[in-house]
Amino acid sequence: MPDSVDFQCEPWLDPEAKPFIRIQSVTKNFGDFSAVSNVDLDIYRGELFCLLGGSGCGKSTLLRMLAGFETPSSGTIYIDGMEMSEVPPYNRPVNMMFQSYALFPHMDVENNVGYGLKCDGVDKEQIRSRVADMLAMVELSEFSKRKPHQLSGGQCQRVALARALVKRPKVLLLDEPLAALDKRLREQTQFELMNIQEKLGITFIVVTHDQEEAMTLSTRIAVMDAGKFVQIGTPTEIYEYPSSRMVANFIGTANMFEGRITENGADYVRVRSDDRDAEFFIDHRLSITEGSKVWVAVRPEKIKLSKTPPEHSSENKSGANNLKGVVQDIGYLGNISTYRIKLPSSKIIAVTVSNQARPKDGRHAVDWEDEVYLRWDATSPVVLTK
Q: What does DSSP say about strands 255-264 and 269-273: parallel, antiparallel, or unpaired?
């Protein structure tokens, strides 16, 4: 990544930093349906930014407006200081990599990658040199004479990426770029994509519905729902400090308890769940009155599971942050096991445990129908008001 791009300083936190892409009050209507509704977003040079959301949330429509394939119903888009409303797609400083890859089946890899340069009238020698450099970067030099049908899915994905990058755009737009790959190849390609982006320093904007993909790839994520941004932040911020129940449930898994504030101290709050299953002691203060309705989210990996009752101590704050239940189901995933625990109220919560030791005789230390005790630290829960 170029020296001028330093994400250690997090430019989005610097009021003096100038956004490379600015989306202002953009709306896109299709008849009476609003696909994108009055959104604002700043993206900085060299970011690998993800638009994340479920099907129909508006993320691909927003990407197409950046590319110029759709025109905003209202609002403005700026790229590198230039307003884009009158700029056609072929004159924008962007290129787009489609989910289908859209490779020409009758052309070999070399000609697929160089096709855009040929259309632009670039000199043949320069085309040959730039294509060779790009194929070397995506590790496909030895496949330059193969046709798309002679390649694997991962290789086709890299050809499409090379074709999109060879024209040296300022911004690369990627629409579900890894959706067609199997899990192992998708995980491998995520890191390849990050390394290529870092080498080139080009701003990447990735549309995906895959939460793990967004968390792995991005400098920041914008979570979309019903045409609007519901939270924008780094992967850590989005996961550890979700702004709403929707975000907490969409990004990973969260055990959600509905309850009320019973005590709001100088540096802590207490919450009692409505079903009386749990009492929470949370070591941060909220600007909210006692008695207010809230939701408490606890991630499965934050919960400690044991067959022995926890000792009473100052940590559990007079019985808070403790539960008892019965193991209903176990999902063994190799590196982790997921336990579904049934509470006295019949509520089911999830707990994940890292499988650091090989189970004896293939049996779990905690098994079906075992009575178990759960606890978590005061720093683990997140209180949500919406």
A: antiparallel
Pick from 341, 340, 335: which is nearest to 357 by CA?
A: 335
Fold classification of 253-310+317-384 is OB fold (Dihydrolipoamide Acetyltransferase, E2P) (2.40.50)
Q: Within 3-151, where are the H helices?
A: 59-67, 109-119, 124-137
**Predicted pLDDT at 349:** 93
CATH classification code of 11-93+169-246: 3.40.50.300
Do 117 and 167 contact (CB within 8 A), yes or no?
Answer: yes
Q: Which residue bears the tokens 């089911």?
A: 348
The 10s digit of each residue's pLDDT in 92-112 is: 999 888 777 788 889 999 999
Q: What is the DSSP letter of 279?
A: E
The pLDDT, as a whole number, for residue 3 is 40
Q: What is the pLDDT of residues 38-65, one digit of tens each?
A: 999 999 999 999 999 988 899 999 999 9
Collect the ranges in the chain with pLDDT lower than 50: 1-6, 314-315
Domain positions in the chain: 11-93+169-246, 253-310+317-384
